[in-house]
Amino acid sequence: MKKRLLAKKVTAIAATTAMAVSMLAGCGSSKTETTAAATQAAAETKAAETEAAKEESAEPVTIKFQYWADNTDYSALMQDIIKKFNDENGKGITVVGEEQPWDGGAYAENLFNAKMGGSDVDVSTWKLTSTPLFANNDLLLDLTPYVDAMDTKADIDDNIYSVMREAGGDDTKMFVMPWNIQVLYVYYRPSIFEKAGITDVPKTYEEFLEDVKKCTLDTDGDGKTDVYGFGMRGAKGGQEPWGSFIYGEGGSFEDLTSAESVKGMQDFIDLYQNGYVPSTATSDGFNEIIANFQSGLTAMTIHHTGSSAKMEEIFGDDVSAFAFPAGKGQWTSMGDTETVIFSSCKNPDAAFEWCKYLATGEGQKMWCEGTGNVPVSKTVAQGDYFQSNRFMKASIEGEGYAGILPIRDTTTEWISNLWPNTVSQALTGAISAEDAMKTLQSGLWEN
Questions:
Q1: Same domain, 378 and 277
Q2: Rg (CA), the chain
Q3: How buried is 341 (Cβ within 10 angstroms: 0-12 exposed, 13-18 middle, 19+ buried)?
Q4: Do 310 and 424 lie in a common domain?
Q5: pLDDT digits (tens, 9 = 90+) for 416-431
Q6: pTM for the full model?
Q7: Are 255 and 287 members of one domain?
Q8: Measured between alpha carbons, how far is 277 from 280 in angstroms, rounded to an integer?
Q9: DSSP 3-state percent helix, strand, coil across the chain (nearest 5)
Q10: Are 253 and 189 in contact (CB under 8 A)?
Q11: Does pLDDT of 2 surpass 50?
């Protein structure tokens, strides 16, 4: 059946172009025009024959794909995407999907042990933090030549490619293919902005700090704060929104002791010590900052689309979002899920077709619309599903400067213990901003 369809396609092209030549001659065209038309017709026929031969001669290839899914709906969705790819890729590629549990992050460890033991998995879903371990053991395929030759390369922001390369510790190689992300943005309450006399969202980092102060309100005149301008996360996980303050003053994770980084830390401290955030901020984690925002205690807080449905359920139109604005620098945290191809894969060309389908093809659209994750494809991001959602739009706006913490052997301990303990001391005045940043720099980079 496939051969008959391809033959019909070639025959149709040849017949159509021959007819065009005949019509040109019949209308009194010059010999030059007729010759040019004939040449073009021959070229089109040859191209069609070449493509037909390529598809006819394509050897059937099976790609073993391992993935995790957060719930049964996502699992079913992935199987739908796999089936669609298998039915429509036209290149004889069959993806066989095998689901494994995330298991609190043990997925990566289990996969590493399996690959070191000779597992035949070709492609896997991925987290950037796993990249150094696998790359250092030569388990990952360098995707750089594939991405450079990809006709849809420009459909993904260069910043995202940069993040992928940085994760492997070698800027000349890219072991990870983008798939979908989460980007932190600022939630805000339009009604509180109106009470504070703010007519538009802040466009700069400096305006953001000023709006935090303006939104700290005594609404009943009893001399006590009823609404705080910002919901600060001082417990574990707070390093992500905190990073936006550091970059807002021109600092960076690479040098936390620079004057700019210390200034960003001081901004953070000042918000706490001057009463613009709840006094519980030193111990507030995700649950607390979300509860404070949903109860009306805070006017702004930072999170991503994962909490947007509940926000809309509670507030309706009285909740919106904006991308964290630029100061001397700009950064926001990016949650990530990608794909990789293992160096042991016997059919890397076919495996990359699957990764590309997930990144910039129909698989990207199906997954991101079905899960509510942020697409890496610019084309998909321009679709009505994403452009009609104010939270998605804020996420997409942040893609060009979103990033991750440096991936080092020290990062887990730094996030879990050093950052919250050190920042708590700084917020309460036990240590200075400068001393706090020296401790954080040493813990991340020098141990």
A1: no
A2: 27
A3: buried
A4: yes
A5: 999 999 999 999 999 9
A6: 0.85
A7: yes
A8: 8
A9: 55, 15, 30
A10: no
A11: no
